[in-house]
Every structure is written in structure tokens, then in C-alpha cells.
From TrEMBL:
Residues 267-280 form the CCHC-type domain. Pfam families: zf-CCHC. The gene is ABSGL_01373.1 scaffold 1366. Residues 279-339 are annotated as: Disordered. The keyword Metal-binding applies. Keywords: Metal-binding, Zinc, Zinc-finger. One of its GO terms (molecular function) is nucleic acid binding. Residues 294-333 have a biased composition (Low complexity). The keyword Protein biosynthesis does not apply. This is CCHC-type domain-containing protein. It comes from the Eukaryota. SUPFAM superfamilies: Retrovirus zinc finger-like domains (SSF57756). Transmembrane segments: none annotated.
Length: 339
């Protein structure tokens, strides 16, 4: 007797998906423009999924500073293996591995791996070949940045809708003025591969750059950035960025003090923005209205006299005299005529 199929419920319908399976594919896919995958549907002309083959080489784009020299970072977000299995793979392939640790960065699962820098052979091999998995997929790491680097990770939005090659050129021309471009990419729909108008960038804004010293180094990052050859620009956000206006998206002021935005509230006293009627300065300068004088009350009409005179006087009763009650009158019926 064959065992029942667990993929189908007794009612004949497929089992409901878990919340993790439903939400897992709602996050946009990050596509690096500097190192695009060869089988990406957005960057290739062929859109037939049946002809696409899974990538065997995945390059990590994890730009971080390591704990000590010899550290690399692997992006293992696409892998389902646990930490113990990955540790065994690392130790079996690289005997110079001194330690490893997994951690989360947003929706990404990263792995810091430290290879003894004294072993130049395995350091070179791990840098270029990475970690090989049993299914043939190879993940190449990103070398940890020195502590002297100043890494800024940008979230890009309101980007123009252009082809990937045009996006790469425009982002590189603009962002290279604000730092050394380590990586730039776009966000795509995980199901269709459609470009969603947003992306990311990683810049190194350290002063020891290759620009001409006479130029004064890199420019200061701003929230609104220009796009070459287009009137429209795009916007960038990063951690610990200076304040900017949420209405006009210009730097230097906030929404309540924006010169082009409609005031959030007006004073009912002077009809000006920036304060309320209780804090209005023009209200305190006005002459206060004179309060009406209290009515004069004579001595004969004092409150105590008025109160006693308003009460009715009760009659005096002599305690020595007892009250008498009138006797009750009994009525006898009048006899009628005898018959």
C-alpha cells in the first residue's frame, strides 16, 4: 500500500504556504551593475526562463571592516546550509582558516572568514576561488576593508528609468565626485526582474583618494544628487546623514521652516506661522480690556442682612400651654317613619 502524498491535503488542495515562504520573495533583488550575473534576466536579452541556467559563481558584495587582518566576507544569503555545515566546508578546503562567524545585515546573511595572512597561497586561493559547495556553486568573498576607510552605504531612490548600462554610467559619473565607488547596483522585482527605480551604492569617502589635491578632495554628500544630461536628479539616504526637508528635499532646513511648503499651522491671533495663539507676541503687546467695576453694596444690604431678611419668621410657641384637640363629632342617623 502506497503512502499518502503529504503535498496534498485530504480535501485535494495544496497545503498553505508558511509566512516565511510568502514574505521571503517580496524583498527586491539587489543586482550589482559593476559585476552583474551572466544569467540575469534584466541584463540579458533573453527572457525565457526555460533556457536560463543557474549561476555557478556568486560574488559577494559585502563592504565592511574586519576584526583583524586576514578577514573576508561571504554573502551566503542564497544558501540553506546551517553554520555547522559551512564551517566544515571551510575547514576542509582551507587549513589556514583561523575562524569564522555568521551575522545578519538587513535581509542578507553574511559570513566573516579569517585566513592566516602569512599563508599567501591559501589567501590568494580563497580571495579568487572562494568557497565551493557540493552542488557546484562557488561563492567568492569580498576582502575586508582597512579601518582607515570611511565607508558610506547609500540607499538610492527616484532614479530615472534607463537601461543598466546607462544607469551604471550615470551613477558612476555622479557618485565618483563624492567618494571612491566600491559598488553600485539596482533593485529589481524578484519575480519578473523589472527595475523598480531604486538602488544602492557603496562609497569610500576617505580623504586619501586619487583625486588631484588641488581639487580639494571629494565633495560633501547631499540628499538630492544631479543626474548627468538630465534635468531630474535622484535622492540618496544614509545613516547619520544631515537633516533635510521632507517636502522640497533640499538640505539645510526641515519641513516646518520650508520656504516653499504650506505652513503646518497658523496663529489664530496674528495669522502667521511658527507659533500658536497662546505664544503670540502681538497678543501681549495689546492693551488689556478693562474689567467692569464691582457693584457697591451698602451696609444695610450686606450679604448677612440679606440672607437673614429673606428667611420667613417662624411663630413663637409657649411651652407651658399644651395644644388641645377638638372632640370628634358623632352623627346619629335620623330615624325614618315607621310603617
Amino acid at each position: 500500500m502506497s503512502s499518502p502524498d503529504k503535498s496534498v491535503t485530504p480535501g485535494g488542495t495544496a497545503p498553505a504556504k508558511s509566512w516565511a515562504a510568502v514574505v521571503g520573495k517580496r524583498f527586491p533583488s539587489r543586482i550589482s551593475l559593476l559585476d552583474p550575473p551572466s544569467n540575469n534576466s534584466v541584463l540579458s536579452d533573453e527572457m525565457d526562463e526555460s533556457e536560463s541556467t543557474p549561476a555557478t559563481l556568486i560574488k559577494s558584495h559585502a563592504w565592511r571592516t574586519g576584526r583583524n587582518p586576514g578577514s573576508f566576507f561571504l554573502d551566503i544569503s542564497t544558501r540553506k546550509e546551517g553554520d555547522s555545515i559551512i564551517n566544515r566546508l571551510l575547514l576542509s578546503q582551507y587549513s589556514a582558516c583561523r575562524g569564522a562567524s555568521a551575522f545578519k545585515e538587513g535581509s542578507r546573511r553574511l559570513y566573516e572568514v579569517n585566513i592566516d595572512p602569512k599563508d599567501g597561497t591559501q589567501t590568494f586561493e580563497f580571495k579568487h576561488n572562494g568557497l565551493l559547495f557540493p552542488d557546484g556553486v562557488r561563492i567568492v568573498p569580498t576582502r575586508a576593508l582597512p579601518s582607515s576607510n570611511s565607508i558610506v552605504k547609500l540607499r538610492l531612490s527616484r532614479m530615472p528609468f534607463l537601461f543598466p548600462a546607462e544607469l551604471e554610467q550615470g551613477l558612476s559619473d555622479t557618485l565618483s565626485q563624492y567618494g571612491a565607488v566600491l559598488d553600485i547596483g539596482i533593485n529589481t522585482d524578484p519575480h519578473s526582474g523589472m527595475f523598480m527605480g531604486s538602488g544602492y551604492a557603496v562609497l569610500d569617502t576617505a580623504t586619501d583618494n586619487e583625486l588631484d589635491p588641488e581639487m580639494g578632495g571629494f565633495k560633501t554628500l547631499t540628499h538630492t544628487l544631479p543626474w548627468p544630461s538630465l534635468d531630474c536628479g535622484f535622492r540618496a539616504d544614509w545613516v547619520n546623514m544631515p537633516e533635510y526637508c521632507r517636502y522640497c528635499h533640499e538640505d539645510g532646513h526641515t519641513r516646518p521652516s520650508c520656504p516653499t511648503a504650506r505652513p503646518l499651522r497658523l496663529c489664530y491671533e496674528c495669522n502667521k506661522p511658527g507659533h500658536v495663539a497662546a505664544q503670540c507676541s502681538s497678543r501681549s503687546t495689546q492693551d488689556p480690556k478693562p474689567s467692569p467695576a464691582p457693584k457697591s453694596v451698602s451696609s444695610s444690604q450686606s450679604p448677612s442682612n440679606l440672607q437673614t431678611s429673606s428667611k420667613p419668621k417662624s411663630p413663637k410657641v409657649n411651652p407651658s400651654v399644651t395644644p388641645t384637640t377638638s372632640p370628634s363629632l358623632k352623627t346619629t342617623p335620623h330615624p325614618g317613619p315607621s310603617i
